[in-house]
TrEMBL record:
Associates with stalled 50S ribosomal subunits. Binds to RqcH, 23S rRNA and the P-site tRNA. Does not require RqcH for association with 50S subunits. InterPro entries: RqcP, S4_RNA-bd, S4_RNA-bd_sf. Belongs to the RqcP family. This is RQC P-site tRNA stabilizing factor. The keyword RNA-binding applies. It comes from the Bacteria. Key component of the ribosome quality control system (RQC), a ribosome-associated complex that mediates the extraction of incompletely synthesized nascent chains from stalled ribosomes and their subsequent degradation. RqcH recruits Ala-charged tRNA, and with RqcP directs the elongation of stalled nascent chains on 50S ribosomal subunits, leading to non-templated C-terminal alanine extensions (Ala tail). The Ala tail promotes nascent chain degradation. RqcP is associated with the translocation-like movement of the peptidyl-tRNA from the A-site into the P-site. Residues 1-63 form the RNA-binding S4 domain. Coiled coil: none annotated. It comes from Limosilactobacillus avistercoris. The gene is rqcP. It holds the Pfam family S4. The keyword Lyase does not apply. Keywords: Protein biosynthesis, RNA-binding, rRNA-binding, tRNA-binding. PROSITE patterns: S4.
Length: 88
């Protein structure tokens, strides 16, 4: 499955156009390699996604073409979540 579609279907990113934009800016790594929005994602891959202040690392558990909101969490597992700045 394409990276941008996976991010949308799994609801990590809400819109596919936003997922495409982030990927094409080089802010997503698949198995520690830069990824484009058209890169293929398979079960077992590790995705590192750089949001503004947050960097999230997730492991892909399964690939499903369509899913309900309640089942979307089963598609991935959050491995790590770090913040560049802590505002506490």
């Amino acid at each position: 499955m394409r990276l941008d579609k996976f991010l949308k279907v799994s609801r990590i990113i809400k819109r596919r156009s936003v997922a495409k934009e982030i990927a094409d800016q080089g802010r997503i790594l698949i198995n520690d390699r830069p990824a484009k929005s058209s890169s293929q994602v398979v079960a077992g891959d590790t995705l590192t996604i750089k949001f503004g202040n947050k960097t999230e690392t997730v492991k892909v558990n399964q690939i499903v073409e369509t899913t309900k909101k309640s089942e979307a969490e089963n598609m991935y597992k959050i491995i790590d979540e770090t913040y560049a700045e802590n505002f506490d």
